[in-house]
Design a protein that fits this description.
Cofactor: Ca(2+)
Oligomer: single chain
GO molecular function, one term: metal ion binding
Number of helices: 11
CATH class of the largest domain: Alpha Beta
Protein name: Arylsulfatase
Strand content: 15-25%
InterPro entries: Alkaline_phosphatase_core_sf, Sulfatase, Sulfatase_N
CATH topology of the largest domain: Alkaline Phosphatase, subunit A
Order of helices and strands: HEHEEHHHEEEEHEHEHEEEHHEEEEH
Family: Belongs to the sulfatase family.
């Protein structure tokens, strides 16, 4: 794995460490395959297993199958924007630490420095084949592509799907802005431009991602090599354009058609795993990067998607600090290891997947930097009822907006919509998430004991930022962390 200076430990040491971990943990004699489906701007209330599905216009039986055959988490938390969320899940660290607290604007250098150690690098070092198909949003310059950060291969886009609209917009051709391309890359090679990412390819790309993902699984299953498949789909990011095979499929409009499409692609993945005979030794995770998009008019394509996404009973969309932004669908299946049909409202954060999967796979978690994720193998496998996590620092960009502690939420700032005005309070607002899912009834003065109990968590976090200075946005490689006194 990468050390603080970017050097690598010897394969012999890694083999010994891996063998020791597997022996000590007794998790599995054979490393399980890992499939991580990561949807884009997909709200908590979309899948049937969270009360969506038919009430959103389309059944979601294959999404629901994962929950029925595994564990459903109703309190799975992410960061509020695409880039921060992807940084957090890849590194097991709050995005503020990696310098990726906000979605980048412009074409400058951004993303993960080489010093960061990603989930893909960790699993690659543990002997896994690693493939990614879809949206990256963690760098588009040399040294910052997925194949520079642990993935053996990648097909997809650097940034966001709204860029597919560029070529159709008035004035773009004369702007001097580079057109977005779909990329194809292998580790150790320069990524190749495949085709421009335009509206003609927008409805088709997720099928191509699914096809490539299945081929990746087939290849590695045949070679009996454990694999990590990361599938960050472009759905359901604006513009929501359905593949021709699914247009009108639901009979309830374009959004329901998109749900049908996502469910069908999920089903193809599940069926392929069954056909390959690797069902019992494959961890399948279904989740998303953040909550749904805000309502907006769509003057680019003629679709009835002016009010996109459902956060379920929670308030807010992406780019806010409310639960509708932070809570996303989550279901995980691992037959014979994770009990079927279970649900939990314990707090879990996307950062927790890094150390959890590391323990399962025999990977190494860096000890030379702050890791915010918590290992939760015993919780996931039903040996413990508690996740071990009691709090989450609520970020909006690089600013702390709140603190979530148990069933309580402290708000120091609030933003109702992405384009609204920031409201900053002299005294924080306090919400009880059990009795007030929409976060509107301030009970601060009725329960002043809660801030006294919760605030030490925020103080610990603040102290950690002083001990280990966050990487500055746009930091160049090679990056060496400053020496702490």
């Amino acid at each position: 794995m990468k050390t603080k200076t970017g050097k690598w430990i010897t394969s012999g040491l890694l083999t010994l460490a891996t063998a020791g971990l597997m022996s000590a943990n007794g998790i599995a004699a054979e490393k399980p395959n890992i499939v991580l489906v990561f949807l884009d701007n997909f709200g908590w209330g979309e899948p049937g297993f969270n009360g969506g599905g038919i009430v959103r216009g389309a059944e979601t039986p294959r999404m629901d199958q994962i929950a029925d055959e595994g564990l459903r988490l109703t309190n799975f938390n992410v960061e509020a924007q695409c880039t921060p969320s992807r940084s957090a899940i890849m590194t097991g660290r709050y995005a503020i630490r990696s310098g990726n607290g906000v979605v980048p604007l412009g074409d400058g250098v951004y993303g993960l420095v080489q010093w960061e150690y990603t989930m893909a690098e960790m699993l690659s070092d543990a002997g896994y084949a690693t493939g990614m198909y879809g949206k990256w949003h963690l760098g588009r310059t040399q040294g910052r592509f997925p194949t520079d950060q642990g993935f053996d291969e990648w097909y997809g886009i650097h940034n966001s799907t709204d860029e597919s609209t560029y070529s159709s917009r008035p004035g773009f051709a004369e702007s001097g802005v580079e057109e977005t391309w779909v990329m194809d890359a292998k580790k150790g090679e320069k990524p190749k431009k495949v085709r421009p990412y335009r509206l003609d390819y927008r409805p088709i790309i997720d099928k191509d991602l699914t096809d490539r993902a299945i081929k990746f699984m087939e290849t590695n299953a045949k070679e009996k090599k454990p694999f990590f498949l990361f599938l960050p789909y472009t759905a359901t990011h604006f513009p929501t354009m359905v593949h021709p095979d699914y247009q009108g499929k639901s009979g309830n409009g374009a959004w329901a058609d998109m749900l049908t499409q996502i469910d069908a692609y999920t089903g193809r993945l599940l069926d392929s795993i069954d056909d390959l005979g690797i069902r019992d030794n494959t961890i399948f995770i279904f989740t998303a990067d953040n909550g749904p998009e805000m309502a907006h008019g769509n003057d680019i394509v003629s679709l009835d998607t002016t009010s996109q996404g459902s956060p379920g009973p929670w308030r807010g969309t992406l780019f806010t600090s409310f639960e509708g932004s932070m809570r996303v669908p989550f279901a995980i299946r691992w037959p014979g290891k994770i009990p079927a049909g279970k649900a939990s409202n314990e707090i879990v954060h996307e950062m927790d997947l890094f150390p959890t999967l590391a323990k399962i796979a025999g990977g190494k978690v860096p000890e030379d930097r702050m890791i915010d994720g918590m290992e939760m193998v015993d919780f996931m496998t039903g040996k413990k009822k508690k996740s071990g996590r009691e709090s989450v620092i609520v970020y909006m960009g690089n600013d702390i907006y709140g603190l979530k502690w148990r069933n309580w939420k402290l708000h120091f700032k609030e933003l109702d919509t992405w384009a609204g005005a920031v409201k900053e309070y002299g005294m924080p607002k306090l919400y009880n998430l059990y009795s007030d899912m929409s976060e509107r009834e301030n009970v601060f003065f009725a329960d002043t004991w809660v801030p006294k109990a919760a605030m030490p968590k925020l103080m610990e976090h603040a102290a950690s930022l002083k001990k280990e200075a966050p990487i500055k946005p746009g930091a160049l490689d090679p990056y060496t962390p400053p020496t702490t006194k």
